[in-house]
Design goal:
The complex is a heterodimer. By secondary structure, chain A is an alpha+beta fold. Chain A is built from 5 helices and 7 strands, in the order H-E-E-E-E-H-E-E-H-E-H-H. By secondary structure, chain B is an alpha/beta fold. Chain B has a domain of 117 residues. Chain B has a 7-stranded mixed sheet. Classes of the chains: A alpha+beta, B alpha/beta.
């Protein structure tokens, strides 16, 4: 089920300083992660990114995902340490038509003599704030027993050992 | 257990029931196969939503349509994974899928249910322009979403002796196109060069060229004249490129080594396909009497294998009209027998570097097998899986004939995961 992205997530996706990592899985379950600078939000709230290489593992895995209805993961790491993971499903691959041609022209302006295999569209289904402070507080609240005892031990002078 | 549903045209399992028996087969490719198998009918709403300024309408093609008519309907469809469906208008009484326009998008409908959103092929920028000789460029070079088609001549000499392939309607359709559209009988190299030059101005639109036509038996040696035509055309096309070689496929008669070497050395051609159409000598002799008479099954097959020595592994293929091996009255009686025989021969060729692809047989009204029905979706799924598994087993690529550079072979669509 597709969900809308928050303004903060859209901003993080749109920030050129954000590190963006796409992780896909092949048909045997083997994962593959790549940096995808082209990840961005489209006007309709979906996430678009470019696949330059027709023969890449990512392109192959994305095809497997759209064929067999599997999710992909997008990790965003902002310049101030904010981390967000988006899980979603590839729902479309533009290989021709106006969206493809527009990106084809723009990517070649930006990167020079490169090709374009497709413009992938992912519908976000889950957004997880992976920032350290947020995760720490959440895990502590949900799993108070997951802690080494020394972290909650009184100072030695207090217990008189 | 698969339930049989009685329709006016076919008694067979429903799409989803068939697909349930193949959980590892992509639903979108199965849908493509079934749409090719059954054809499409464009609803009135869909026809009204077609915009000739942005959608590609039917342009001259080597084969005719199931309704035997040339109408200003959409050329064909794209699925959301980038899969091309080459299909054609089909009379409603033949149980086609319906293409409708609902909530601002084109959709595929079967039995009243929306199955998928589809896109119509985008119109290329060069359509609507004319050559300096005054011909519409869309009559010279036709487009697929990422490929240019050059149908060099519109005649097959096998037909002259009443030995045309039994599934084929090339000459029937050619006459119709000439009479109704004014499509030229034979293309001139200059018209083709000029049209290709115009087409590739549209950056990002095209990735390959495909040349094909009927067989020409004339010349000092068999097919010499056919080779001459292709050399002239390929050289003219090559004037548009900085590199000697350009991504291209020739689907032609079974040429001898000298002819193949000439094509490889004197032109920019990068791959060669010669269609056996159906595997097995007995079937070949019945389905392709012209090919059988002038070359013969064993020699046609050997010529394919020898072509690997010139074009290289992964650059030579043969095409099947998938399902015609089950045509009546001389075809296989069961789909299992047909599949076993076909995959066995495909493996023998794959071992020697020749890859096999299929198209879904459409019993067209202008062909000798008109009125028959193609086999089941289950058969086509198994055929596609079997052919792709052979490519994996023998490390054969099919880059020149894949989902993007061709789009008409369900088996090579599967190569996207190879």
């Amino acid at each position: 089920m597709s969900i809308p992205l928050s303004a903060e997530t859209i901003e993080l996706l749109g920030d050129p300083d954000t590190l963006k990592v796409l992780t896909t899985v092949d048909t045997n379950g083997s994962p593959h992660a790549v940096v995808k600078k082209s990840l961005h939000t489209a006007d309709d709230g979906t996430i678009h990114f470019l696949e330059i290489f027709e023969a890449s593992v990512s392109h192959r895995n994305l095809t497997a995902s759209i064929w067999f209805d599997r999710k992909v993961s997008i990790l965003l790491f902002g310049k101030e340490g904010r981390q967000t993971q988006i899980k979603g499903r590839p729902v479309k691959c533009h290989i021709s038509g106006p969206v493809f041609l527009d990106h084809y022209a723009r990517v070649r302006e930006r990167l020079g003599d490169v090709d374009l295999a497709g413009v992938w569209v992912v519908e976000p289904e889950e957004v997880i704030d992976e920032s350290f402070a947020v995760r720490k507080a959440q895990y502590r609240a949900e799993h108070p027993d997951f802690i080494h005892l020394d972290r909650i031990a009184k100072p030695l002078e207090e217990v008189g050992v | 257990m698969i339930a049989l549903v009685k329709t006016n045209y076919r008694n067979e399992a429903l799409f989803e029931e068939t697909l349930a028996g193949h959980p590892d087969f992509p639903r979108l490719i199965a849908l493509k196969i079934d749409v090719q198998r059954r054809g499409v009918h464009y609803s009135e709403r869909a026809q009204k939503a077609v915009d000739p300024e942005i959608h590609q309408l039917r342009s001259p093609y080597i084969f005719g349509s199931r309704d035997g008519e040339i109408k200003a309907l959409p050329e064909s469809l794209l699925l959301r994974d980038g899969t091309t469906i080459l299909t054609d208008p089909t009379p409603p009484d033949q149980d086609p899928y319906i293409v409708d326009h609902v909530d601002g998008r084109f959709v595929l409908i079967d039995r009243g249910e929306i199955l998928e959103a589809v896109e119509l092929w985008p119109k290329p920028a060069y359509y609507g322009k004319t050559t300096r000789s005054g011909l519409p460029m869309s009559h010279i070079v036709t487009a697929r979403p990422q490929r240019l088609n050059v149908f060099q001549s519109s005649f097959c000499y096998f037909w002259a002796e009443d030995k045309g392939c039994r599934f084929c309607d090339i000459v029937t359709h050619t006459k119709q196109q000439r009479q109704e559209l004014g499509v030229p009988n034979r293309l001139t190299p200059e018209d083709v060069r000029e049209t290709v030059a115009e087409a590739i101005k549209e950056a990002g639109r095209f990735t390959s060229l495909c040349l094909t036509a009927g067989s020409v038996i004339k010349g000092a040696r068999l097919f010499d004249r056919e080779v001459d035509f292709y050399v002239e055309l390929l050289q003219a096309i090559g004037e548009n490129f900085r590199t000697k070689k350009f991504p291209s496929q020739l689907i032609a008669s079974a040429f001898d080594e000298d002819q193949l070497a000439r094509l490889y050395e004197e032109t920019g051609l990068t791959s060669y396909t010669s269609d056996l159409e159906v595997f097995g000598e007995e079937q070949f002799n019945w389905i392709c009497p012209g090919k059988a008479k002038w070359v013969g099954y064993k020699e046609w097959r050997e010529r394919l294998i020898r072509a690997v020595g010139i074009f290289g592994r992964g650059h030579v293929g043969t095409g099947l009209v998938g399902g015609v091996e089950l045509a009546k009255p001389h075809g296989f009686r069961t789909e299992n027998d047909a599949l076993e025989s076909t995959l066995s021969e495909a493996e023998a060729l794959a071992e020697r570097g020749v890859t096999t692809v299929y198209i879904v047989w459409v019993p067209r009204p202008g062909s000798a097998l008109s009125g028959q029905k193609a086999p089941s979706l289950d058969y086509y799924i198994r055929l596609a899986t079997g052919l792709q598994n052979l490519r994996v087993k023998y490390g054969l690529r099919v880059d020149f004939d894949d989902y993007r550079r061709c789009g008409n072979h369900p088996d090579s669509d599967l190569a996207r995961l190879q």
